[in-house]
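Schema walkthrough. Field components (list of strings):
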Amino acid sequence: MKRLLSRGPLGNDVYVPRHGDPTYSVRHYDLELTIVLVTNALSGIATLSCTAIEDLDDLTLDLYRLRVSKLKLDGAPPAKFSQRGHHLVVRPRQKIPAGTDFTLEIAYHGSPQPMPGPDGDAGWEELADGLIVASQPHGAPSWFPCNDRPDDKATYAFGVTVPQGYTAIANGRAVATKRRGSTVRHEFAESSPMATYLATVQVGRYVPLKGEAAGVDLTTWCPPGRKVAVADAFADQPAMIEAFSRLFGPYPFQTYAAVVTDDELEIPLEAHSLSIFGSNLVDRDWSAQRLIAHELAHQWFGNSVTLRHWRDIWLHEGFACYAEWLWSEESGGRPAAAHAQEQWGRLAELKQDLLMSDPGPDDMFDDRLYKRGALTLHALRLRIGDEAFFDLLRTWTERHRHSGVTTDDFVELTHELTGVDGAEFFGAWLDETALPPLT
Ligand SMILES: [Zn+2]
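Field assembly_structure (string):
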């Protein structure tokens, strides 16, 4: 069973052009960062534990507008390193044979800026009184040197020094906080493998609201003055974690954090084990609740089970959008079927020129892709029934936990578990632009 559409080679993603080097892999990033907010200054030491995939005469990292002052390869200066565009090219003194582990220690500094890409700017962004990092899909090089491709996951340790009075929050578990004069250093560790674009640091005047759900440590960070409103708006997060753990399988990480900024943000965004919301989403309305559910669902679909190519973005957004409709159903609101009918009717009125399996970099975050992705899942649920559908979702998150996937993987798993012919069912939804009927 093969679908009609052919797919290109790895390591050449036109959605995020010239990012990532497929000739080596990073296993661990250790990021020691000092941030001065008033001047938007960052100085960092990044220590990368790497493995050569091919014999390496040179290797390339991604780093945008930040200057490297010192670089060591296995503790010694390399033959050469140079920066051109957003590339940092390192030439070792001798060829590094395939399979060899090596370490890069990179000292760098500058004033980080959001990184432009085909879909707009992403990455480091200053707030009125703090900063966020929202890197999907290409913004990671705006704040640390990396092998910026979503199929190269690594573990992370962060030490982030900020002025007293501010909190720095990164992915994973809070390990320690130490005051040093007029600064404070926050240490975080993410022990599950994470894609570069999902790494983040958030800095602001935040206080934590602590909770727990389904064995997961839950922290909601917000400005002190918004505590009561945020506690109310985010009160359903534990129930969401419990519902999604039942429907999708166990929550994939040790912790979950929601950061609510004092600023309003155009859109909320997911990071690994963390989501970022603007103060405009501090609301009990469905328009806010659906997005709180959406970002949480990305922890399963996107952050644990991660696309290998950006053209498969529906595997993140379609699933997270369907999770909104499932939360509606679970929380006693409208059933998913009602959302599906309504959205199918809306899409039927819109232009049908979006190819789900390869929407192109300009349309990868088009709202039609989100809704049609969710409709694809709803149509599949109608076809195979609830039991087989949720069994499929749980098998998907279990089999590909903490790893990378393609659309073909999902099509093949569906065929394996349910016998549904991928070319026939998914072909109509994903490889053709005309909207198929819902039943
Ligand atoms: Zn999303």
